[in-house]
Amino acid sequence: MGPSKVLHAALTLFILANSSSEGSPLKLDQALLTFHNQLAEDVHVFYTSDFCYKCVYQRLATVKPSNNESAVISTKFSLTIRVESQDRNATLCRWSQTYGEGGHYSVWIQMPEAAGAGPVCAQAVDKTPNNTYLPLLAAALSLAVIALLFVSVPVLLRRRSTSKLIKTLCCQGPRHSLDNDDTNASELEDDANKAHPKRLRSLDTFRGFALTLMVFVNYGGGGYWFFQHAPWNGLTVADLVMPWFVFIIGTSVVLSLTSMQKRGVSRLQLLRKVIWRTVVLLTLGFCFLNYSPRDGPLSWSWLRIPGVLQRLGFTYFVLSLLQTFWGRREIATTARRWWQYIQDVVLYWPQWLMIILLETLWLCITFLMPVPDCPTGYLGAGGIGDDGLYPNCTGGAAGYVDRWMFGDNMYRYPTCREMYGTTQPFDPEGVLGTINSIVMGFLGMQAGKIIISYKGRDVHILGRFLTWAVVLGISAAILSKCTRDGGFIPVNKNLWSLSYVTCMGCFSFLLLGAIYFVTDVKCWWAGKPFIFPGLNSIFVYVGHSLLGFYFPFSWQMRFQESHWEWLFQSLWGTALWLLIAYLLYRKKFFLKI
After folding, report:
1. According to the model, what pLDDT value does residue 29 have?
2. In degrees to the nearest 10, what's the CA dihedral of 552, 553, 556, 557?
3. Contacts of 401 (CB under 8 A, 6+ apart)
4. Which of 55, 79, 120 is nearest to 381 (CA)?
5. What is the dihedral of CA 159, 162, 167, 168, to 10 degrees?
6. Residue 11: closest CA among 449, 556, 530, 588
7. What CATH number should be reported for the domain holding residue 76?
8. Which pLDDT belongs to residue 186?
9. 3-state secondary structure 210-255
10. Has 563 been annotated as catalytic?
11. What is the pLDDT of residue 244?
């Protein structure tokens, strides 16, 4: 996400070349496929990706009689390859296969020895592909060892210090009477207060975890396709990050504004704070995280209006208004009413009414608004998808609204561009998606309301989290029909579709509930190291976006044919920002806006 999308788009071309020689070096996610034509006629080779929904076959190679031709192909997803005869106007053979990275393969198009049989395609492996997951396995084991050391070493040191202390008290120090327990009791009480701080450790940990994953993804994710955004429909690891961040914004809005309202902060003061923070976020997004492809620093001719921080700022603004005008300072937990078990919903019915109206607006515009030369309610990527019938309809109504409002001042490298061959610009932080971003943040607000409404009753809080996760998960399953492309509303991060929001809401409730149980209820984990960037999220996000592609965070790699250096660079850059966040934490520096 963010400014690194341009780099990712350049580094993850779906088909990087249509022809190549066997001596040419292969890069990440590439394999070499050589066709040997032993027939007495020309053959044409076409391909399509199985991840590309109803995509038109693209020409890969034309092979002359008694000749061979090589092509570099993508190894990210399964490919369906079709060999056709021009003279016979027929398909000679077709197969679907996932090829290995760095492998060399041969396809022999020949006539079988059996009389009367048609041409066949026989495959052979000329060079064994690389084990692409070996770097990932090595990194996972290394991180597991480091985590184990960070956990075990302090425990061993504490045990050693404790044994020395016990030996000193028992053998050398004075013995204390059991009647003198006041001081010890107060110390234990202070320790207990320190173990359960007023500030939710789980929320900062969740925010820090999402931010750490975001930094890793923006640094390339080791070059693995599942650490990059999905081409259109579907989910990858990279698609989980921003919804989690929006969810946390909603939870933080409820907790922080409710706390200020209890302290007697006036509505006017709250509005000033909200407006100031919104303006700062929008300014950071417009001025600092906008990058020029041609005109240099900040030119109006290319200024991108939508953006990540712009969406976060606007979402924060709307959620804060909902909480400022229709939030509650106090909740009577002792009152016995029929709706006491759903008081976290009933007491905030004006907010729910506004959210329902917003979602209704999204549904009406998405499925009822006529778009020129496009079918009403279209949710596809356009380009060569959907049998090539709607090449200029990328994003349907969402793309049309953004192009009408922003013109050229929007994102020009959507994730669908390489696989679907789209030409229309499409901004993943567009207007309609921002509506559902507000809905996602409101689900986070619901988590905050649960924490406030059932304060001190951890079983009720965790039970409510689980209930919301189940309801949202079932909703996502129904809307998507548990398929990637065939549902009523597919799960789509580019569109921020309703099924995407419900799916991410399910994951968010589950993850926040798990972290809350481990950190705030049982106190088994202090949230380290994720709590450090979680307490300085704006600094880390802006810092890694501005400095992320400078040394020592990244460098020009020399070994681009494998994932080893890619993965090391991604982990190295992420680790440096964790270290910076830790040092800022030690210096008690927290960037607040």
Report:
1. 87
2. 110
3. 365, 369, 430, 431, 432
4. 55
5. 150
6. 556
7. 2.60.40.2890
8. 36
9. HHHHHHHHHCCHHHCHHHCCCCCECCCHHHHHHHHHHHHHHHHHHH
10. no
11. 95
Question: Domain check: are 443 and 541 in the same one?
Answer: yes
User: 121 pairs with which residues across the strands?
Assistant: 109
If asked whether residues 279 and 406 sit together in one domain, one would say: yes
Paired with 513 in beta bridges are none
Contact 469, 502 (CB under 8 A): no
Instruction: Evaluate whether 195 touches 204 at the Cβ level (below 8 Å).
Output: no
Output the DSSP codes for 39-75. Answer: SSS-EEEEEEETTSTTPPPEEEEEE-TTEEEEEEEE-
Tell whether the torsion through CA atoms of 499, 501, 507 and 513 is positive or negative: negative
Residue 192: phi and psi, rounded to 5, are -65, -40
Strand partners, 59: 46
Which residue matches tokens 């994102």? 411
Helix (H, G, I), strand (E, B) or coil at 161: helix
Contacts of 312 (CB under 8 A, 6+ apart): 245, 246, 249, 281
Distance CA 87, CA 46 (A): 16
The segments of the chain whose pLDDT lies below 50 read 1-23, 165-197, 292-295
Note whether 507 and 376 are same-domain residues.
yes
From 229, 460, 544, 563, active-site residue: 229
Distance CA 591, CA 587 (A): 12
Cα–Cα dist 203/534, whole Å = 8
Burial 358-391 (b: 16+ CB within 10 A, else e): bbeebeebbeeeebeebeeebbbbbbbbbeeebb
Claim to verify: residue 122 and residue 205 sit in the same structural domain: no
Residues spanned by the domain of 256: 200-331+341-581
Please report whether residue 354 resides in a domain: yes
Write down the mean pLDDT value for the chain: 84
Crossing angle of helices 498-516/349-368, nearest 10°?
140
Give the Cα separation of 98 and 78 in Å (integer): 4
| pTM as predicted | 0.86
- 122 and 266 co-located in one domain: no
Q: How many domains does the chain have?
A: 2
Same-domain status, 97 and 231: no
The answer to whether position 462 is within a domain reads yes
Q: CA 210 to CA 207: how far, in whole Å?
A: 5
Q: Is 116 part of a structural domain of the chain?
A: yes
Angle between helices 498-516 and 241-262 (to 10 degrees): 60
> Is there a domain that residue 155 lies in?
no
Cα-based distances in Å from 329 to 74, 100, 267, 318, 402 = 57, 59, 12, 19, 39
- Residue 560 burial by CB count (10 A; 0-12/13-18/19+): exposed, middle or buried? middle
CA dihedral 288, 291, 296, 300 (to 10 degrees): -80
Could you tell me if 115 and 235 lie in one domain? no
Confidence (pLDDT) at 175: 36
Write down which residue in 81, 96, 127 finishes a domain.
127
Answer with the one of 110, 127, 144 that is the final residue of a domain: 127
The answer to whether residues 229 and 107 belong to one domain is no
